[in-house]
Amino acid sequence: MTSRGEPAPFERFIQRFGILIIIVSGCLVYANSLHNDFVWDDTTLILGDKKLSDWGSLKEELTHPLGYCSGRSFDSYRPLQTLSYMADRWLWGTDPAGFRCTSIFFHVAAAVLLFFLLTLIIKNPAVAFLTAELFVVHPVHTSGVVYLAARDNPLGLFFFLLAFLGYCNWTRRKGYHAAPWFIISLAGAWCAFMSREIMFLIPVMFIWYEVVFRQDAPGDLRRLFIRIAPYAALLALYYFFFYRVAKPILLTEMNHYQDAYLTTRNALLILSPVLATYLRLLAFPYGLHMTYIFPLPRSFTEEWIFSSFLALIVIAGAAGWLSRRSKELRFAAGWFIIWFLPVSNLWGFFNAVMAEHWIYTASIGYFLFISILVVRYAKRPTFAGRAVLGSVICVLAAYGIITAQTNTTWKNEESIYLNTLKYSPYDARTIINLARIYKKQGKRAEAEQLLTKAHQLRPDLY
After folding, report:
1. Could you write out the DSSP letters of every residue in 262-291?
2. pLDDT of the chain along its 462 residues, tens only?
């Protein structure tokens, strides 16, 4: 702000063109992905489900686990994701470009909502813009956007941010002016629940917001309870529907992924290497690929485990020191922790140790934390401030270029499998998938060689 209380020139620029920059940059970095084919689980969920084009099958599609009508059910209940596939099938047929346009739309729209939300909460357009811009162009989100089977990420985040924006406006208004925002917030929360399972943490996120920013809430538990109660009731309704309709099907008709690697003990031991890898990908997004393989952990004192633990202690200490007088930084750190926990394998095992698109929602906390620090120094009218601002522009440009390059690794199934094996050469499942591609292409010798290698690695799979 200027001395007269007017917005500074940079803030005025963001207010006028910030949203446009977010939209244009988000569309540009993913434009070259429109020519990509269906890959990995896309083929099962979209091409394998012949009932997606039949609206008469709507009830069957929405009351069964994801992928049920394709003949291969996934351990997920995401009816809104299935509904989005049906809409795409109606609009685009089996053209992957149309499906990808929808995923890009929700990703970019989520970034716009994030800008509005943070402008309202943080009250700093520069911080809100930089956070949203980092989010929309960052390469780590490529799999969450380009990989159509992971559409639950942009879809769930979009509705969560809509619910959050509605909640903030509802609690700041009175009377009939608040009612529309309350309805928008509840509708957004319900759609988020139906898009992605981890969105059950929405009430927790609202509580964290109240504790950090709303000074009246910590001392007024009754008011906090009244604000959160509708969302808790909505969540209870969701779980009632989930267990009454979908859970029996999940238990009786699905083959749950089981792997001796994913035990509670192992999950605890590799927690620090996994978290350190996520943070590395957010800061330095190189070596992006689909499947991450970690050695079987034996002891906490192993170098790769203990060193990552020490690194996280240092990072946590630095973050705590920086946040001691900044509620905005505390909010950002809390955002990351809250949304990281459900994908940490600590209270339920997924079909892998980690995946880039799992950090989709949690990454916002990281971007917000970094943006607050960067804007704090970049706004200084000194050489150092201008250097920071120039560095930010270069980083954003580099991230955008890397994202566009990473899109090419998702061009087809062969390219994604080859890229995965480049970084995880001992992933037996990917080796088998690549062998199947080679067999279809008539490369029988290469296929047999790969299948022999997969059998040596995992005899139980082949």
Report:
1. --HHHHHHTHHHHHHHHHHHHHS--S--S-
2. 544 444 556 677 777 888 999 999 999 999 999 999 999 888 888 988 888 888 888 888 888 778 878 777 677 788 999 999 999 999 999 999 999 999 999 999 999 999 999 999 999 999 999 999 999 999 999 999 999 999 999 999 999 999 999 999 998 887 778 899 999 999 999 999 999 989 999 999 999 999 998 755 445 777 888 889 999 999 998 888 776 666 555 544 433 334 555 677 888 888 999 999 999 999 999 999 988 888 888 889 999 999 999 999 999 999 999 998 899 999 999 999 999 999 987 765 566 788 999 999 999 999 999 999 999 887 766 777 678 778 888 999 999 999 999 999 999 999 999 999 999 888 888 899 899 999 989 899 998 999 888 888 877 765
Q: State the Cα angle at 234 between 231 and 235, rounded to 5°.
A: 85
Dihedral sign computed on CA atoms, order 89, 90, 94, 95: negative
Q: How far is CA 309 from CA 275, 348, 366, 373, in A?
A: 9, 22, 19, 24
DSSP-assigned states of every residue in 339-379: HHGGGTTSSS--SSS--GGGGTTTHHHHHHHHHHHHHHHHT
34 by DSSP, 3-state: which? Answer: coil
Place of tokens 């596939």: 85
- Segments making up each domain of the chain, as ranges: 426-457
Percent helix, strand and coil across the chain, each rounded to 5? 75, 0, 25
pTM of the model: 0.92
Tracing tokens 């059910």 back to the chain, one arrives at 73
Tell me the torsion sign for CA atoms 282, 285, 290, 295.
Answer: negative
Q: How far apart are CA 258 and CA 461, in angstroms?
A: 12
Question: Please, where are the H alpha helices in 284-346?
Answer: 303-323, 327-340
Q: Cα angle at 87 between 83 and 93, to 5 degrees? A: 130
Under 8 Å between Cβ of 49 and 94: no
* Contact present, 250 and 75 (Cβ < 8 Å): yes
In angstroms, rounded to a whole number, what is the distance separating the alpha carbons of residues 247 and 241? 9
